[in-house]
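For reproducibility, we list the full input for the D-glutamic acid complex.
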Amino acid sequence: MKTKKQNYSHLSPQQPIGIFDSGVGGLTVAKEIKRLLPHEDLIYFGDTKHLPYGEKSKDAIIEYSTKITNFLLEQNCKAIVIACNTATANALNEVMQSVAGKVPVIDVINPVAEKVAYEIHNNVGVIATKATVNSGLYKKSIRKHNKFIKVDELATPLLVPAIEEGFKNHPITHSIIYNYLSNAKLKNIETLILGCTHYPLLIDEIKQYYGNRVRVIDSPNIVANHLNIILDKYHLLNTSNPKPTYKFYLSDITKNFEKISKKFFGKTIDLELKVL
Ligand code: DGL
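The corresponding predicted structure, in tokenized form, follows.
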């Protein structure tokens, strides 16, 4: 979704950026934001109590996403990053309504779909949660910009629980990946979109399966770049913050979240239980 020409003069570059996902997945986006925008304060909400979102109804995903959005607005965030494909696919309009034009909203599907539509000219595969695939949003968004691209989407619901369990480099994860990627739907693809922010945590295993045959899109990088462009456009980039802060709220504190957030953000992260 394009951010409308807005007046954000009530916001200041010093305010934090709010990011949310159901769990550790959004950390792949947060990490890229930190790398690209190293002076920004970040507030992350991981809704670990309710994951996986991919198995929930649209109504439940809307309820969780709008509550978190309101919470991030209360924390004075200057932008909201929906670092979750499932929330984007099922609750983007409702999140936009909650925000009511007060801050820019960046999602993880539209910037990726637009880039792929303009830069890729071959068969594209998308792997994602059930709720994302059922929405058909990737196909719609890509084909809106380029109707000649063939897009095949496959639901891969076992990956999120495996990632949340910390099964990286594990035989179980290898066989799940092999099973899904050898599906006939993905047989002729030349490009793969990881349509769930959890999946970049398994990017090595996924690339290993394909060798050099398939190009895997770096969605977190595309999203972080898009955020950079939007903040710059509205003069909201923080470029002079010597000690940026990273605050993490979790609706259920899990060992795996602690482990991955510490790996990406350092040992002394500020992690707090918050049930909305
Ligand atoms: N990381 C999420 C996504 O991008 C959500 C996965 C889930 O909770 O099912 O879709």
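The first strand starts at residue 17 and ends at 21. Residues 21-23, 25, 51-54, 84-86, 129, 132, 160, 196-198 surround D-glutamic acid (CB under 6 Å). Both points were considered when choosing residues for closer inspection.
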